[in-house]
Amino acid sequence: MIELIPAIDLIDGKCVRLSKGDYASKKVYNENPVEVAKEIEAYGIRRLHVVDLDGAASQHVVNYRTLERIASATGLIIDFGGGVKSDEDLVIAFDNGAQMVTVGSIAVKQPDLFGKWLEQYGPEKMILGADVKGRNIAVSGWKEESRQELLPFLDGYVKKGVTKVLCTDIDRDGMLEGPATELYAEMLKAHPGLHLIASGGVSCLDDIRRLEEAGVPAVVFGKALYEGRIALQDLSQWI
């Protein structure tokens, strides 16, 4: 059964969503992310993906106090990403309630540092962020496109012990046009045992079903929830 992971994206401590990672497209859905997290938990969901968009743009963790409030008010298993660029950022994330941390830019720009974290904290706590634009990995809050292609990038890190990968198709993120199911199937064909978390484009329950049929282990979704395309009460079949 596919694992459901609602997302809370943070700017100025508020729950927001972007389209294709464009900060100019910001829409605020709730000024109190703790309320959102509590409602998610009330329907039986156990996981939450928290993204510090201020951190992603600032190159260091910013919204850690909001992370701490969510973690203190709920029993949700939280993975946190955005702005984790140093040992200090990583400690801040874990100390403020994250059970897992998603790292993308550092894995591209400072692979030795990411390798150290992977060894220090273990593959259960470190999620590789593989955000793609076209077939290339994008970094720094999706403002930069690297020259690294997705599949070779993934191959290298699986060999180093990575077991969890969060892959966002940037062109689909926040667009409600359906996820990149074929891309995820290709990734899983190359690495059948990978705990792949699909992200970007989920617009309805049928999108989740198609990902499940493709063998995708987990899915992150946000905008469809906030826009009323997906209702929490309709997710009971997966909980």
Describe this entry's structure for a reader:
Strands 1-4-5-6-7-11-12-13 form an eight-stranded parallel β-barrel, surrounded by six helices. The protein has a three-stranded antiparallel β-sheet with strand order 8-9-10. It contains ten helices and 13 strands. 46% of the residues are buried. It has helices spanning 33-42, 53-58, 64-73, 87-95, 105-109, 111-121, 150-159, 181-190, 205-213, 223-226; strands at 3-11, 14-19, 22-30, 47-52, 77-81, 100-103, 126-129, 132-133, 136-139, 144-149, 164-168, 195-199, 218-221.
Biggest β-sheet: strands ordered side by side in the sheet: 1-4-5-6-7-11-12-13
Instruction: Enumerate the spans where pLDDT stays under 50 for 5 or more consecutive residues.
Output: none
Gyration radius (Cα, Å) is 16 Å
Strand content: 25-35%
Number of helices: 10
Helical fraction equals 25-40%
User: What structural class is derived from the secondary structure elements?
Assistant: alpha/beta
Order of helices and strands: EEEHEHHEHEHHEEEEHEHEHEH
Number of strands: 13
Describe the secondary-structure layout.
Layout: E1 3-11, E2 14-19, E3 22-30, H1 33-42, E4 47-52, H2 53-58, H3 64-73, E5 77-81, H4 87-95, E6 100-103, H5 105-109, H6 111-121, E7 126-129, E8 132-133, E9 136-139, E10 144-149, H7 150-159, E11 164-168, H8 181-190, E12 195-199, H9 205-213, E13 218-221, H10 223-226
Helix pairs in contact: 1-3
Give a brief rundown of this model.
The protein is 35% helix and 29% strand. It is an alpha/beta fold and 239 residues long.
